[in-house]
Design goal:
By secondary structure, the chain is mostly helical. The chain folds into two domains: about 325 residues, no CATH class; about 70 residues, no CATH class. It is built from 18 helices and nine strands. The strands form four sheets. A three-stranded antiparallel β-sheet has the order 7-9-8. Strand 5 and strand 6 form a beta hairpin. Helix 2 packs parallel to helix 12 and helix 5 runs antiparallel to helix 13. The chain starts with 5 loop residues before the first helix and ends in a 13-residue tail after the last helix. The site of magnesium ion has 4 residues, from helix 13. Its EC number is 2.7.8.15. Its cofactor is Mg(2+). This is UDP-N-acetylglucosamine--dolichyl-phosphate N-acetylglucosaminephosphotransferase.
Amino acid sequence: MQDLSSTEVYSLSVLSIACIAILVNAWKSDGEPLFASLAISGAAFSFTYAVIRWTGDVFIKRGYKGKDLSKKSPVELPEAMGLISALVYLLAVVNFLPFAFKRDIVEATSGGGNKDRVLEAGMDDTGRFLHRFPLEKLASYGFAYGTLATTTILGILDDSFDMRWRHKFFIPAFAALPMLGLYFVDFGVTHVVVPLPLRPYLGELIDLGGFYYLYMAAIAIFCPNCINILAGVNGIEVGQSLVIALLLLLNDFLYVSPWMHQPHPATDSHLFSIYLLLPFVGVSLALLTHNWFPAKVFVGDTYCYFAGMVFAVVGILGHFSKTLMLLFIPQIFNFLYSAPQLFKVVPCPRHRLPRFNARTGLLEPSVATFSEEKPLRPVVGEVLKVLHELRMLRVETNEKGRVTQCSNFTILNLWLVCRGPLREDRLATEILVMQTLCGLLGLWMRHSLALLLFTQDNRF
Ligand code: UD1
Ligand code: MG
């Protein structure tokens, strides 16, 4: 990989120095968590950007490499570089904690700044007033960190051993255990609000009990995996993650904005979400600059799992998991559409990414082929033909009318079936624009249309 150019060194240095200056000022005045988080995210961007450049060749030497399958002469690129983003992110979160809790530490001690408002007689014997420290808030960060660190470790395992899909599918469930444990001891609410039309039968609230934990585990499994299967085009894994993160930040802003009636009961949850998402945006932007078409690095399953788990963590510990799902509409569609191949009703090749046509330089739908020895079940073939008529699939048949091949069941291939061949970056851009529109629609539904089903929007 190329060394950093002098312009890059200059820009990254200026950004880092500005961020450090903001951090120093924030520390002088009560921590200022929001400014500190922004500055740490800027520094995380610079650091990730530089480290990806410095270590790309080392990854290749160690065997972490992959061929870019959609290029005329496929070169080997560093694989699993999302590891750098994940590690810098974990570092950024830890470094943010002193800023998040400075106010509480100062209030509870006679420490610097002499703001010992809570200082009382007896303090000499008992030392710091640690019992006043909001440990339950710190716990959320701690368990989020534990879950994300475990996810990263398991992601590296996957990238190192190229695990089978049916094995790695459940990896995130193990990583999510610390977070679900915290939910159990700290929050433990397993009631859900019943939509208005169902209230005469079910009442206002319904207790899902253990099923609520299964639901959260399902979210923790779904988010990472659905990002990993909407993949294979330069920039799409990081791009879709950035879109989700920015939409979540927009939703958080609706709760913490100065125009909202403050203090709102959900402010703390949404600040928690903001503080976890800002550094995520920083490290992901740095990765995207290297992964966008034409890619210089691949992000690896480590990044897909890590990104998905960041969303699961903020959704579950921030108590807005249903809103979170509204921002995953394309991924949910892709998962449902993929189901026939994921569950082996239709054979699933190792790679389902779109096929590169070297003559035109454009991407076309990739296909799964069915041989005479391993034919498709006739009834499945008939369903595929109906999907073909509906332009939901591209199917080819032989002279006997038997289905010999069909386009792979991913939203990327479906997009190409509908739109015709596209250049790689054009496909990625169109999918991201569609995802942004779906996400905005989801948020609108959440805050406006939901009033038809529930008595009020919880922003008010
Ligand atoms: C998932 C998909 C698989 C898709 C792959 C592409 C399912 C069940 N699995 O598998 O169909 O082909 O992601 O990421 O849906 N690559 C490119 N260009 C890119 C990104 C990746 O050519 O922009 C290739 C590279 O050779 C890279 C490899 O894909 O090394 C990475 O594949 P990997 O992430 O290991 O695949 P899976 O996550 O197992
Ligand atoms: Mg992958």
